[in-house]
Write a structure and sequence with these properties.
6-stranded mixed sheet; elongated; disordered C terminus
Length: 624
Amino acid sequence: MISFAAPWLLLALPALPILWWLLRVTPPQPRRQAFPAALLLRDLPLTEETPARTPWWVLLLRLLAAALLILGLARPVWGPGGTAQGTGTLLLVVDDGWASGPDWPLRIAIAQSELDRAGREGRPTALLATTPGEGAQPPRVIGPMPAEDLAPRLAALRPRAWAPDRAAALAALDAWRAQAPGAVTPIYLSDGLSHRADPAADALMARLATLGPLTLARADGRPVRLLSPPRTEGDSLRVTLRQSPVGAPSEAQVIARGQDGRALAQAEFRLAAGATEGEAVLELPTEIRNRVFRLDLAGEAGPGAVVLLDERFRRRPVGLLPGAEETADTPLIGDLFYLERALAPYAELRRDTAERLLARPLSVLMLADRPIAPGAELDALTRFVNEGGTLIRFAGARLAERPDTLLPVPLRAERQLGGALSWEQPQRLAAFPEGSPFAGLPVPAEVSISRQVLAEPSARLAERIWARLADGTPLVTAESRGEGRIVLFHVTATAEWSDLPLSGLFVQMLRRLVALSAGVSGQEGEGMLAPLEALDGFGRLAPPPPGAQPLAPGDDPMPSARHPPGWYGTQGPEGFRRALNLGATLPPRCCTRRRPPAPRCAPSRAFRPSRISAPGCSPRRWCC
């Protein structure tokens, strides 16, 4: 079946006979002029002949071209499918949340085709976008109005960087129906996801089905994906990808980019059929990892495919506390001499009193043979560890004499060459056990241990050992406390008890421990964090919308119209930035593919409309 958008142009078809007559008109014969020199060419064979009349097949082709031109200008519509199912106002309901960005052009094309069909039939139209606007305006129904008036509003619609609010959309639909009663034919372009743990999605669809025959369009063949902020593990970033389940194995690629947009590294996700989560590991040296500005999911366009990395993923401030401040920097024998030279190229080192060090955000605190006095200092260090800090301690004569509670294992005694607890020759290092952060590091043969503090034997001692000597005694032990961790080197941070501080292995071990710690975002202070840049519905950084509100320090709200995902912080040379990511705050259910409440309906392909007829069916029992 064919219809025409400009049928008045078909009036030009009766003029084809006139065109036939004009094409058949033969131009006058040319005047012949005798030229004697042409006699020389008389006997040459002719290579081209011009007919006196236009051949009939040329005239036919010209007429056919003219007819096709007329038909084309009349804008034919092939297979319009007759009139849309239902009568009355055509209501377009569009999910325009964060999951709509990757297939937004297809969504708009489907909605525009339905709008054009309604315009040809002369039906009024209305539009309901289910996501709050940039100023946190709740969803509302636009219309009813003619299709040609609604078309610009549909073209201006853009996806948002936050989740739809279907409960508010349902309230807007009920308010609109109270003012505009009459027959309605709804078409719902759904993202198919459960964004919140409430029945609003099914309730909205059930309400639409009561208005008239419901057309549901969903992209079932393509998964909706959400990238989560990475976890730091040594020199690598472990990234998690959540997606709606699909029936076939799938692959994805994450790209680490610098602030200038250049790709620094990439890794692949491989997800089995039906899987909803996958992991990929980005192997990056510390220097390169500190330059990573964002992670992008290749081939995806949306805020769910972007993770912004702030200073919490890069900076590792390390505080140093010696046992004796007056001799801490003495060359070769000072408590901090080797620690400072091992960490200075890779971390931000801070030297001060314990009180002042803990007054600022800190990732790691290292104590070199320093006992902890009971009271305020012990309470402050305990709070630092419980809140996520990493406490690294080195043994020594002072610690052996005065052990405290901030140790991963109880200490029993000290043994050394020539002492009561001695061995015949210095001990070598054993290979690092599996599961240790030092696993895979080569053990140099020249490193020897001549003195150490021993751990009290216990049932859980073996699981707390990260490094051991050849005779099985622990060299490094660790224990998790609260959100943080305590690590103990059973030797000194100087070369007095061992050759370890003189080796490159010492540098690698310290780097891995610092990389295991949690980063910090700098001193946020007590002021509010103003929105600096925001992600739009296609995953691009842009100026924040007018309705964006500042964040309170330490606050991690779910992204919304008031707090869109993006950068927050302070301006100026001393300012800092803090990232608010979509994947860090959305609950796991956000990527659950919501089954359509019509179990007898065949699954639709990419936005293939499926008819759901409501008359005679209860909201819990749908008809197809």
